[in-house]
Amino acid sequence: MNRTFSRRRDRLLVYQTMREGKITSARRTTCSACGAECANLEWERNLWVCPRCGFHSPVDAYYRLSNILDPGSFQELEERISPADPLSFPGYPAKLSALEEETGLKDGAVAALGRVDGCRAVFALLDSRFLMGSMGTAVGEKITRAAEYAARKKLPLVTFSASGGARMQEGIFSLMQMAKTAAAIQRFQSGGGLYISCFTHPTTGGVTASFASLGDIMLAEPGALIGFAGPRVIEQTIKEQLPEGFQRSEYLLDHGFLDRIVPRSEWRAVLGQLLALHEKGGRS
Amino acid sequence: MSRYTPEEKVKIARHPDRPGTADFINALFTGFFEQRGDRFCGEDPSILGGIARFHGRPVTVIGHRKGKNLEENLRCNFGMPSPEGYRKAQRLMRQAEKFGRPIITFVDTPGAYPGREAEERGQGEAIAQCLALMSALEVPVISVITGEGGSGGALALAVANRVLMLEHAVYSVLSPEGFASILWKDSSRAEEACGVMKLTAQDLRRGGIVQGVLREPEGGAHTDWQATFRTVDAALTRELAGLEKLRGPALARQRYEMFRAMGQGLPPAGREEP
């Protein structure tokens, strides 16, 4: 048991070291929002928030956790859940294995146990490198098990979403993950569990319309696109151009759907504060 | 049963003369009292709901409404609800639970409305709350997919103890047009999408997504409304009798476990090289 845990902990450390080795000032990355080109080292120091325009570019699940959790507290959960191909969708298995090769993930979600400033919590994150973090059966199952695990252990649940919505390749089974995850969150919350939902860029469709919108506390990174229908679909439907800033975090905050916008560098502090406020007995 | 191809079924499911929620309510229920408004800011006619009697027993009935002529279609936004509709549905379901009434829903929508105001008022949140609420209701819930079951906008009224489907109705993660447009960037490949999506009642029954398939008259429900009503009436009567034997917590548990199991136990995707 302990050995399994320490092996899992090592995984995040190995991952961090691996990343650091890759980051040099020789390689440069262009911001997809403003087009400015900066050295990767500069991006890295800025947590992959554009040093010029402040665009919070998507980051992978492990990177995000490595910036939030207390060092050495990471224990991955439910690593073995793997995707299914219920429609026998042409090319889907090959796509999945290529992505597994590329990302080391079996599907687009990571669940983990960790601490922030000493407060334990269960984390579930979507990883947009994997088919835009779309929710198929494996992602739905992982979110559900994270909620069930948190309920069993009486721990708070924190999710970070980044998703194109329900995964088309798994058809109706993906749609059902919306009901499944929403039901699991509902059950967790009615048992007294604290659920903090954090939106990152972009989160749309079936993820916005299920577990991600059910947080007791709702947070988002600056400038994140958050919505049910994507802006392109809306523009096609209403045949007019959408205003600047439509469906962005700031817009959602103005319309009453978020508690706060949290810049990437502040996640650790904000989550630490919230988790401490909900510690048993309300001790500080 | 499978004399029609999936593409043909999509056409039948969308047939303008197919009976809609209002028709089912008129035919199967007595003393319908329509309840309107979400008590926040609006009334969305694309969801029709209220209290009625089903064989004498008070029930709450809710469904998507497309409208029967162009004027009604426009008023009902072609059956594409806004957040107000989903929040009205939540209000009605909470009330049904309070008064111990079973809930019967009729599902027939291309999807939730993808519009500017709908987003502004939290379409995603409204659907999510419907799913969460329905999953824990301690009264019997039966859903009948009567026409198109499109995406989250359909599922928001279909987290039920029993999900039944008319023989030629369809139910899918997205409309075939949307599916083709997302996956192949080409909405004109909708027919091809119909073929791969497994959206027919028969496929969904096999996949454990729906629990019953209701026979339609020759040619589809629009050819003989009375026969369709008789079939749906008999199915609702039978299912309700079964569910009413369960107590509230057992109903919530059965529903939770049914949806909990969806997508579990599927064989892992084969990893053969292309």
What does this protein look like?
The complex is a heterodimer of chains A (284) and B (274). Chain A contains ten helices and nine strands. Chain A has 284 residues and is α/β, with parallel strands linked by helices. In chain A, helix 7 (205-208) links the parallel strand 7 (195-203) and strand 8. Helices cover 40% and strands 17% of the residues of chain A. The model of chain A has no long low-confidence stretch (mean pLDDT 92). Chain A folds into two domains: 1-57, no CATH class; 58-282, 2-enoyl-CoA Hydratase, Chain A, domain 1 (Alpha-Beta Complex). By secondary structure, chain B is α/β, with parallel strands linked by helices. Chain B has one domain: 2-enoyl-CoA Hydratase, Chain A, domain 1. Helices cover 42% and strands 18% of the residues of chain B. Chain B has twelve helices and eight strands. In chain B, strands 1, 2, 3, 4, 5, 6, 7 and 8 form an eight-stranded mixed beta sheet that branches. The mean pLDDT of chain B is 95. Chains A and B meet through helix 4, helix 5, helix 6, helix 7 and helix 8 of A and helix 5, helix 6, helix 7, helix 8 and helix 12 of B.
Any chance you could write out the topology, listing elements then pairs?
The complex is a heterodimer of chains A (284) and B (274).
Chain A lengths: L1 H21 L5 E3 L6 E3 H6 L15 H8 L6 E3 L14 H12 L5 E8 L2 E8 L10 H17 L3 E7 L7 H20 L4 E9 L1 H4 L8 E4 L10 H8 L10 H6 L5 E2 L5 H11 L7
Parallel strand pairs in A: 5-6, 6-7, 7-8, 8-9
Antiparallel strand pairs in A: 1-2, 3-4, 4-5
Helix pairs in contact in A: 5-6
Chain B lengths: L5 H8 L7 H8 L1 E5 L12 E8 L2 E8 L5 H6 L7 H16 L4 E7 L6 H5 L2 H13 L5 E10 H5 L6 E5 L3 E3 L3 H9 L5 H8 L3 H6 L5 E3 L10 H19 L4 H13 L14
Parallel strand pairs in B: 3-4, 4-5, 5-6, 5-7, 6-8
Antiparallel strand pairs in B: 1-2, 2-3
Helix pairs in contact in B: 4-6, 8-9
